[in-house]
Design a protein that fits this description.
The complex is a heterodimer. Chain A is an alpha/beta fold. Helices cover 29% and strands 21% of the residues of chain A. Chain A contains 13 helices and 16 strands. The model of chain A is unreliable at 1-21 (pLDDT under 50). The longest helix of chain B has 24 residues, at 233-256. Classes of the chains: A alpha/beta, B alpha/beta.
């Protein structure tokens, strides 16, 4: 390398480190572009991201001078995947208690617990999910021995120290069988606990100086945390599966009309799809439940999501507490149902939207991320094939326009053990 | 009436036990001993025999489909003939086949055929749906070694999971294993995935038994928390070795004719040492698998398959040399400490090392998508420059698991004479967009998307929401 070239390279390097805004600008060209809002993919499209935001995506996008380009010919380009709700970042190893912040049985607090304090952006689960194309997630709050899990957070999965996009983004409640067990052994008790808590929060919201009755059950901190719920400023996510439980939850709004409900799980949602649609209540549906795994899931069928969608329910995929990187496989399975006689599934466009723009919209953040429409965050994934196909994988990930490291514990192990047997030195020196 | 009968039977059982030690029978003692020796040696090895008989079938010819034969072969637009419940022929051209005049002819153009999918690791029936406490029948977690228990005695044939495994996963055979709480969890049983009133009606005729073993975290956690051995990995090994020493002694006495009573636990372990019962060993970590391989050598048994085996890729060479299969997930990872080093390329690296790869489920949902799990592993292989052809990947779900559980002479590939266990897929099974369209077990059509009534509905589901629904 000539001296002049070295100087030029150094200058370029300095420019990169000195001006992070530049790194948030990129044009990805020639790929099959999926906007993520349910519209058809666009062959040979361009995605232009400037200063961390999508400026344009589609055909005939003019690329301003100086914008670095990435060739995605033969590849697919999509918004980053959005998974709501999940629990990554709350543990390193789920079964290793010391590393796990996803439960707090002995805490005196419940509704006021704020999950954003526990999220670890360096957790391998975040890195592995990012390498699978997941860029945003709604993190479910920790469960306690009460029905209130606490306040959830919206995060990005960026390789940086600042994961929280919105803390206290929603309140999470367990009803159904789990809620019944926590509340004292029956649905009746769970309902009493929920109803009482909402009443106490409403009383607190109406009390001029924050004065309270002397027979309240909730501590002040928890009651205060529920004020935004009863006043409709913070969404209430309720986990229920059984049709009858879903109806009960919908009925909650008669007494508390301001509550903004989202139903989570919803295995028997197809049985009350008309009511859900009429109520305009959004659903984060566990995608493929088809077994009566419990008595509250007797009506389980993989056609659940397709039937709800057909009935006009606002539905996104979510609430699968295995790995968020499985989202495309779940979505792809719903597409496969469209070829099965008698089954209901989603079209490809609907299925992709169900793991990108739809969950973002359910979270109330559809204008911020989840699609490649102008103004959304520059969360872009380049795939080596159809993103919903199980044989496809991720080539590049951008979050807020910044290209992300896809390296993690798994990739390093893979590289070390690609060729078995020890070399001149033990494997431990191969890193 | 029922209560009375139970009382009488109880009294009879007591009499038998007391009779053996009663003073009045002293003069028959010698005769009794020889009867005991005989019983311990010549016991009925099949006391709960299969009552499964293939369901009525019609000769069936499928033409025009892409055929993956399960043994690594592929025929574009091939023909498969099922006759008398067996694979009669697989050919490039149907014209060459001797097709009975009354055969059902199916145009498989654009579709795919594989052998019935086989899951080498299932708990269907033992941990059935709904997963309520009363249904928890998979772990006899009351002692660290329980080789005397048999998974088949827990199988609930009405588990709705069986029908889902067929409808969505094309599964026609499965090994139901005890859980992994114990070092030696008991015997596993191979089932045909057919609806039946009894376990015996599902039992795979001619399949060997398996012994489920487990190393690592589970046994030491379960028993350590009860304040008893084993509480460590070294404790795991010590208890295993002590038990194998007992089994060796038992077997020696048995062969010498000096046993004086039967011992259910030892009969299972002796069966392993005799080579009649296969060892299915739950094991995650590479270092532990290497120790277990040596333990097998120490006591003279072979490990048929390591299950889960998330670190098998670290010792692909050792596993290939041992001829031991690894039954793995595609990409389960990180849920427990011993799963922390799982990688999606596990199957690929094993395949490259020449070791036997099996994709297994251990899960009532995963068993519905074994084809997709295999496809994921194939995609991950491609990204590191390893091309595993489709037909070879299909072997991970068919002939390899058949071998791992000892039924490879009977099913697992589309070889003439083998069982007519066949799946017709509506697209390439290594795609998320494909599903089984028809499934045959021993030539009988037991699932058909075109016929609502060819959909099994378990007793449990009758009269419930969604009875007979698509699942």
């Amino acid at each position: 390398m000539s001296a002049r070239r070295v100087t030029a390279a150094l200058a370029a390097l300095l420019a990169c480190t000195a001006a992070p805004a530049l790194a948030q600008t990129v044009a990805i060209t020639g790929g099959k572009v999926v906007i993520g809002d349910g519209t058809d993919p666009i062959e040979g499209g361009t995605v232009l991201v400037q200063n961390g935001k999508v400026v344009a995506a589609g055909r005939d996008v003019a690329i301003p001078a100086g914008v670095p380009t990435v060739d995605a010919k033969g590849k697919w380009v999509t918004p980053g995947l959005v998974v709501a709700v999940t629990d990554i970042g709350l543990y390193d190893v789920e079964a290793v208690d010391d590393s796990n912040d996803s439960g707090a049985d002995k805490s005196p607090f419940s509704a006021s617990l704020d999950i954003s304090h526990a999220i670890n952006p360096d957790a391998q689960h975040i890195k592995v999910s990012r390498a699978g194309g997941v860029t945003r997630a709604a993190i479910a709050p920790i469960g306690t021995d009460r029905i209130f899990g606490g306040q959830g957070a919206v995060i990005d999965l960026g390789d940086d120290p600042d994961p929280v996009v919105a803390s206290r983004a929603f309140q999470y409640v367990e009803l159904g069988e789990t809620g019944a067990a926590r509340a004292g052994g029956s649905r009746v008790a769970a309902w009493a606990e929920l109803h009482n808590a909402l009443l106490e929060a409403r009383e607190l919201s109406l009390a001029p100086a924050g004065a309270r009755r002397d027979d309240v059950l909730l501590n002040r901190r928890d009651a205060q945390a529920l004020v935004p719920v009863v006043t409709g400023r913070q969404p209430l996510y309720v986990h229920v599966e059984r049709a009858a439980d879903i109806r009960m939850v919908l009925g909650l709004r008669k007494e508390f009309p301001l509550i903004k409900l989202t139903i989570v799980g919803t295995t028997e949602g197809w049985m009350v799809a008309g009511e859900l649609a009429k109520a305009g209540v959004a659903v984060l549906a566990t995608p493929l439940n088809d077994l009566p795994g419990s008595f509250e899931k007797l009506g389980a069928t993989q056609s659940n999501v397709g039937r709800m969608k057909a009935a006009g329910v606002k539905v996104a995929l979510g609430a699968f507490f295995d790995q968020p990187r499985y989202a495309p496989q779940y979505a792809g399975n719903l597409v496969s149902l469209t070829k099965v006689p008698g089954a209901s599934g989603l079209t490809w466009n609907q299925a992709f939207a169900a793991i990108s723009s739809a969950p973002a919209e359910v979270m109330g953040m559809g204008d911020r991320f989840g699609s490649l429409r102008p103004g959304r965050a520059g969360d872009v994934v380049i795939w080596d094939g159809d993103p919903l196909e199980v044989t496809s994988g991720v080539s590049k990930v951008y979050i807020d326009g910044v290209e992300q490291s896809l390296k993690n514990h798994q990739t390093q192990l893979r590289d070390r053990y690609l060729n078995p047997g020890e070399g001149a030195l033990p494997k431990a020196y191969n890193w | 009436m029922r209560g009375l009968r139970r009382t009488l039977m109880g009294a009879a059982a007591c009499a038998l036990v007391l009779g053996g030690t009663g003073p009045g029978l002293a003069k028959d003692k010698k005769k009794d001993e020889s009867a005991a020796v005989k019983a311990a040696r010549d016991f009925n090895k099949d006391p709960y025999p299969s009552s499964y008989r293939p369901y009525p079938s019609q000769s069936t010819l499928i033409t025009g489909a892409t055929v993956f034969d399960g043994a690594g072969g592929k025929i574009e637009r091939g023909a498969v003939l099922i006759r008398d419940g067996k694979i009669a022929a697989v050919a490039e051209n149907a014209a060459a086949l001797d097709v009975p005049a009354d055969a059902v002819r199916i145009d498989g153009t654009g579709k795919f055929i594989t052998p019935g999918i086989i899951d080498a690791h299932s708990h269907l029936g033992d941990y059935p749906s709904p997963g309520v406490e009363a249904h928890s029948d998979g772990n006899e977690a009351t002692a660290p070694t329980t080789p005397q228990v048999w998974a088949e005695h827990s199988v609930w044939p009405q588990d709705p999971g069986f029908s889902r495994a067929m409808a969505n996963g094309g599964v026609t055979s499965l090994l139901v294993l005890p859980g992994s709480a114990n070092l030696m969890g008991g015997r596993g049983v191979v089932l045909k995935n057919v609806p039946a009133r009894t376990m015996q009606g599902m039992k795979f005729p001619g399949a060997p038994y398996s012994l489920k073993m487990a190393c690592g975290e589970n046994p030491k956690r379960v028993y350590g928390s009860k304040g008893r051995e084993p509480s460590t990995r070294m404790g795991n090994l010590a208890v295993n070795r002590a038990t194998w020493i007992q089994a060796q002694e038992y077997r020696f006495k048995r062969d010498a004719g000096t046993l004086d009573s039967r011992d259910l636990a030892m009969e299972t372990l002796a069966g392993v040492l005799d080579g009649e019962i296969l060892v299915q060993n739950h094991c995650y970590r590479a270092d532990e698998m290497a120790i277990v391989l040596d333990m097998g050598k120490e006591f003279g048994y072979k490990i048929s398959t390591f299950h889960h085996a998330v670190e098998a890729y670290k010792i692909g060479d050792l596993l290939a040399a041992a001829g031991t299969c690894s039954a793995v997930w595609a990409d389960w990872w990180g849920f427990k400490m011993e799963a922390y080093d799982a990688i999606p390329e596990n199957a690929t690296i094993l395949q490259k090392a020449g070791a036997c790869v099996v994709i297994h489920s251990d899960d009532e949902n995963g068993i519905q998508r074994l084809n997709q799990e295999a496809a994921k592993a194939q995609g991950d292989a491609r990204r590191i420059g390893v091309d595993v052809p489709d037909a070879e990947v299909i072997r991970w779900l068919t002939l390899n698991p058949a071998k791992a559980i000892g039924i490879d002479k009977l099913t697992g590939s589309l070889e003439a004479g083998k069982a007519g266990d066949v799946v017709l897929w509506n697209g390439n099974p290594l795609s998320v967009y494909s599903r089984p369209e028809k499934v045959w077990v021993d030539g009988a059509l037991l699932f058909d998307t075109a016929d609502r009534k060819r959909r099994a509905v378990s007793d449990f589901e009758l009269g419930q929401p969604g009875e007979g629904d698509v699942k």
